């Protein structure tokens, strides 16, 4: 029962992490304009994401523009996109595989060994998915930090971490932790010994004595 509860907890955490990765990928707030310099602009807030850039006016109106061409984007941004999309697809596969191996599901009940392996395999896929998202968000965040502290970067073009980065970090951590719980939830296989067979009883004596 304890391993079943740990398995369910791991799946829920990994699933929530996967949902967070999707939300982080779709959000445009991967980096936001910094107004720490002398020229502070309070009329609007500028955001940039993986797919579009947005400007929020002081009235609350948001205007977004999707990036025109994929080939014009920086190679690092394209790599970040690819890692996040790969993380989402891996998480989708991990959901189906882990659900198949869950103890509360009826499928594959006739082979508990394969069912346990499916749960562990789903956990491994979730871990890989979380690592891909963690690498993507950390790489993007490192680029933002390096550009911010670069003395050659104009003050009015500096950006800070956006909320999508923090959501991505938390979601990746959840996916990795949940996948680890899935991998550790299966009990160890105990060595099974064949049942002992009793020796056949001696046939009743026929009254003949041998010397």
UniProtKB/TrEMBL annotation:
Q: How does it sit in the membrane?
A: Multi-pass membrane protein
User: Which PROSITE patterns does this chain map to?
Assistant: CLAUDIN
Location comes to: Cell junction, Tight junction; Cell membrane
Sequence intervals crossing the membrane:
7-27, 79-99, 119-141, 161-184
Can you tell which superkingdom this protein's organism belongs to? Eukaryota
Major location (coarse) = other
MF terms from GO for this chain are:
structural molecule activity
Please give the GO cellular component terms listed in this UniProt entry. bicellular tight junction; plasma membrane
Keywords (alphabetical) are: Cell junction, Cell membrane, Membrane, Tight junction, Transmembrane, Transmembrane helix
Q: Which PANTHER family match?
A: CLAUDIN
Q: What does this protein do?
A: Claudins function as major constituents of the tight junction complexes that regulate the permeability of epithelia.
Protein family: Belongs to the claudin family.
Q: What is this protein called?
A: Claudin
Organism annotation: Grantiella picta
């Amino acid at each position: 029962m304890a391993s079943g509860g740990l398995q369910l907890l791991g799946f829920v955490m990994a699933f929530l992490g996967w949902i967070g990765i999707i939300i982080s990928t779709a959000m445009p707030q991967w980096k936001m304009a910094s107004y720490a310099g002398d020229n502070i602009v309070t009329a609007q807030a500028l955001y940039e994401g993986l797919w579009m850039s947005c400007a929020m006016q002081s009235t609350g109106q948001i205007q977004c523009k999707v990036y025109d061409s994929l080939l014009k984007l920086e190679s690092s941004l394209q790599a970040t996109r690819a890692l996040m999309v790969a993380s989402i697809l891996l998480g989708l596969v991990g959901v189906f595989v882990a659900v198949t191996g869950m103890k509360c599901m009826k499928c594959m009940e006739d082979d508990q060994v394969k069912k346990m392996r499916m749960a562990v395999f789903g956990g491994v896929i979730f871990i890989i998915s979380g690592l891909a998202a963690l690498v993507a968000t950390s790489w993007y965040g490192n680029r933002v930090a390096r550009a911010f502290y670069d003395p050659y970067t104009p003050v009015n073009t500096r950006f800070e971490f956006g909320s999508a980065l923090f959501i991505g970090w938390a979601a990746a951590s959840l996916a990795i932790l949940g996948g680890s719980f899935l991998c550790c939830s299966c009990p160890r296989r105990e060595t099974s010994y064949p049942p002992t067979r009793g020796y056949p009883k001696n046939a009743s004596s026929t009254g003949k004595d041998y010397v």
